[in-house]
Design goal:
Distance between the termini: 57 Å
Shape: flat
Strand order of the largest sheet: 6-3-8-9
Radius of gyration: 22 Å
Order of helices and strands: EEEEEEEEE
Number of helices: 0
Number of strands: 9
Helix content: under 10%
Low-confidence stretches: 97-105
Structural class: mainly beta
Strand content: 35-45%
């Protein structure tokens, strides 16, 4: 056998440029009133000066989550109809769900996408919709992804994520 395999892949080499600014979400500013939500963010240069008039593109999405309580390893709270099935041979897990459905963004519903400029003090207030859950009550995760581009065309992305629980407690049977 004289077969040889060759592979090619293009890549780009550029000078490393460290970040010159950061995006910070203000988690205490998050407000949810029915299905209307808002969240504030601020972008500052690393030396503290606000990133004025920079371009902001952002997306808000909501998805069903799986809750794994740290105090009870082995327990997961989810819609079991999506993860298990029963047939004449017994109870089975649905294959290929991955380790954690909450990290699977394919089940997320994008509720808002927008572009705007940051204010003179480097701030923005994001307003978006968090639709009520359909089906069984379960934990839901809200994600906000923000992408800020400064005057030098450096772009930085940051994500804010919060899981909201459908009830004040969970009841698990082992």
């Amino acid at each position: 056998n004289n077969r040889t395999d060759a592979f090619r892949a293009p890549f780009l080499v550029e000078e490393y440029k460290p970040n010159t600014f950061q995006i910070v979400f203000a988690p205490d500013s998050f407000k949810l009133d029915g299905e209307s939500a808002s969240l504030a963010l601020q972008a500052n240069y690393l030396l503290g000066k606000p990133l004025a008039k920079a371009k902001l593109a952002w997306t808000a999405s909501v998805g069903d989550a799986v809750f794994h309580p740290d105090a009870f390893p082995g327990f997961s709270f989810l819609d079991s109809r999506e993860s298990y099935y029963w047939n004449e041979e017994g109870y089975h897990e649905v294959p290929d769900l991955g380790d954690d459905v909450a990290e699977d963004s394919s089940n997320n519903l994008v509720t808002t996408q927008a572009k705007t400029d940051l204010t003179d003090d480097g701030r923005a207030s994001l307003e978006f919709t968090v639709p009520k859950s359909t089906g069984l009550p379960r934990p839901r995760t809200v994600n906000v992804d923000a992408e800020v581009t400064d005057l030098n065309q450096q772009t930085i992305t940051e994500r804010w994520q919060q899981t909201f629980h459908a009830s004040a407690f969970y009841l698990g049977i082992n």
